[in-house]
Amino acid sequence: METATDLAAQISAQLRTVHFGRPLHVHVVATSTNDLARDLAAGGAKEGTAVLALEQSRGRGRLGRGWVSPPGGLYLSVVLRPALPPERWPLIGLALSLGAAAAAAVHGRAPVRLKWPNDLLLDGRKVGGILVEAVGDAAVCGIGLNVLPPSGSGMGPEGATWLAVRNPDVSLNSLAPDVLLECERWYMKLGVDPGALLAEWRARTVTLGRAVRVAVAAPFDGVAEDIDTDGALLVRTTTGLRRVLAGDVVATERSR
Ligand code: BT5
Q1: In the predicted model, what is the mean pLDDT of residues 245-250?
Q2: 224 lies in which domain range?
Q3: How far is residue 80's CA from residue 24's CA, in Å, rounded to a whole number?
Q4: Which of 67, 80, 155, 161 to mutate for ligand 1's pocket (most ligand atoms within 8 Å of CB)?
């Protein structure tokens, strides 16, 4: 079995980033890479410090949900120190989903689309997700990508897929440096040209133009019309345009 030290050395040797993954901490098992990255952030870790685990025992998603994290997935967290005000931090999630999707598409040899806010879809099924958490003025950004199929009889979580479905030769070791590179590229783009980031997100999403149900405390229906400059989803309802800052949307009909 590959040791964490071997893997760290292999990934670091392929790294072409300026900050992301420098340094890179690799663990065979973590509770959640976001927990480890939170501790590093609280201890003053610099922007780009990253934690990768081969397996998570308590991986988490947004809104208190879990992230199923068996061996064969990419579980990565990066400490960021954004110059953006916290109300614009949802844009970080969009930037990292674009980056992770770009790397996943190359390594999966298939298009990867985005579902608001931070889901990555392959053939309409969830192949990855992003979780952004605040630790003081740092943002800890977790990236989860299903790479190899779950071993044994399990089919993985409902609605999930993995990159090996499209590319059986996909390798975690060569995917990881590209995820770091593409995430860094889109995070830097956010700093200099947020408009270009939003344009790319609009081009890659399955959410816009669709009839949706917005799953918030008081759910409502509408058409996902656009994304606002702070990352909020703009939903056209019978009573006007509503901004959705956090939550989930479910398509209520297929429009493309
Ligand atoms: C997300 O949450 O999609 C963000 C996932 C972030 C995971 C990374 S892994 C590295 C870092 N460390 C962590 O502990 N977390 C981050 P959300 O949109 O809330 O989606 C969660 C939902 O997706 C669950 O309720 C399940 O329905 C589904 N799900 C759980 N595990 C999955 C998996 N491996 N693949 C696809 N879907 C999954």
Answers
A1: 91
A2: 211-251
A3: 14
A4: 67
